[in-house]
Amino acid sequence: LTILGLESSCDDTAAAVVRQRGTQPAEIMSSIVLGQTELHAAFGGVVPEIAARAHAEKIDICVKQALSQAGLSLSDMDAIAVTAGPGLIGGVLAGVMCAKGLSVGAGLPLIGVNHLAGHALTPRLTERIDYPYLMLLVSGGHCQFLLVRGVDDFTRLGGTIDDAPGEAFDKTARLLGLPQPGGPSVEAEARNGDPARYAFPRPLLDREGCDMSFSGLKTALLRTRDRIVDEKGGLTSVDRADLCAGFQMAVADVLAEKTRRALRLYLADAPAVAVLSVAGGVAANSLIRSKLESVAAEMGALFIAPPLSLCTDNAAMIAYAGMEKYRAGLCDDLTLAARPRWPLDRSSPALLGSGK
Ligand code: ATP
Ligand code: FE
């Protein structure tokens, strides 16, 4: 089975070819990601209109590159998978329209994939793991614990009630005058910092359950920065490093403790081999990765973190999720709609433990 995947929901135009023969592991034949960071740099964030135009301009060439890198042509594909949401609607539309054109032109089945399902199924692309497993999806726009029971069967155990951590990293970088995207620059600064010098809150840890909050952290950072500037007239590089280290440690502590709770819920009903996996751009953070790994080890679960290139937005995950949907007979037709919002979960934690 060979699937062409397309992704254009945020600021990366991506196309990939994934192939799986029988019961062999799936193989990424090609994966092209054309980023747009430079286009948005002057604006301090992704501008939807600019993103949509860039996707529309580049998606064809991206598909061509993916096919040629795989050494295959459209007629070698079995189906076309495309991100149909959630995301910036102009970009999603550009991808869906392109996929529809290819589907009609080549007479291939069309499969609409939920972008979050793409992230959530990534560990099955890289490792042999069975359902159900626990996934922490932590990115620029999302933060949630998902019990992944099947290609189209997700239970949300909890998540952020305000900002996503990636967003908080990006805002922190902006407040401290560091380059975007904020995650990598804050992480680099934090390497030389003392995480204990400034006190940051650990929101919602006193409350039961797996919900999280990150907007207070951002406010705490803003206040501390302003206090330092008031007292000393500016920030030294040591102050900046210490602020980054304190902020990053607070995010990592909250994620680790809430992961412990989510694991407890999952383990109450777990299969023989319990798996904790993580995906999304923030999963690239090495402190967060290592804390999650310790929590998994402590609770007897296997920790699986996909390689960084598959944690951030890419089309291989969309092609792979499309492949699982194809196998399950979940194909779409030309009425496939582009959706700005598309929640993955349809059930609540109340279902856990009760007759599944
Ligand atoms: P979504 O998938 O929710 O639509 P997105 O596409 O913006 O959002 P990703 O591409 O998965 O998200 O991740 C980008 C986010 O990850 C950015 O907010 C970025 O700052 C953050 N990030 C990247 N690297 C790191 C890192 N090393 N540490 C912390 N955060 C990071
Ligand atoms: Fe994403």
From TrEMBL:
InterPro entries associated with the record: ATPase_NBD, Gcp-like_dom, KAE1/TsaD, TsaD
Domain of life of the native organism: Bacteria
CDD domains assigned: ASKHA_NBD_TsaD_bac
Pfam families tied to this protein: TsaD
Amino-acid positions noted as binding substrate in the UniProt annotation, renumbered to this chain: 137-141, 170, 183, 187, 285
GO MF entry, a single one: tRNA N(6)-L-threonylcarbamoyladenine synthase activity
Record-listed Fe cation binding positions: 115, 119, 313
Every Gcp-like domain range: 27-320
Enzyme Commission number, as recorded: 2.3.1.234
PANTHER family to which the protein is assigned, alphabetical: TRNA N6-ADENOSINE THREONYLCARBAMOYLTRANSFERASE (PTHR11735), TRNA N6-ADENOSINE THREONYLCARBAMOYLTRANSFERASE, MITOCHONDRIAL (PTHR11735:SF6)
Family: Belongs to the KAE1 / TsaD family.
Protein name listed in UniProt: tRNA N6-adenosine threonylcarbamoyltransferase
Species assigned in the record: Seohaeicola saemankumensis
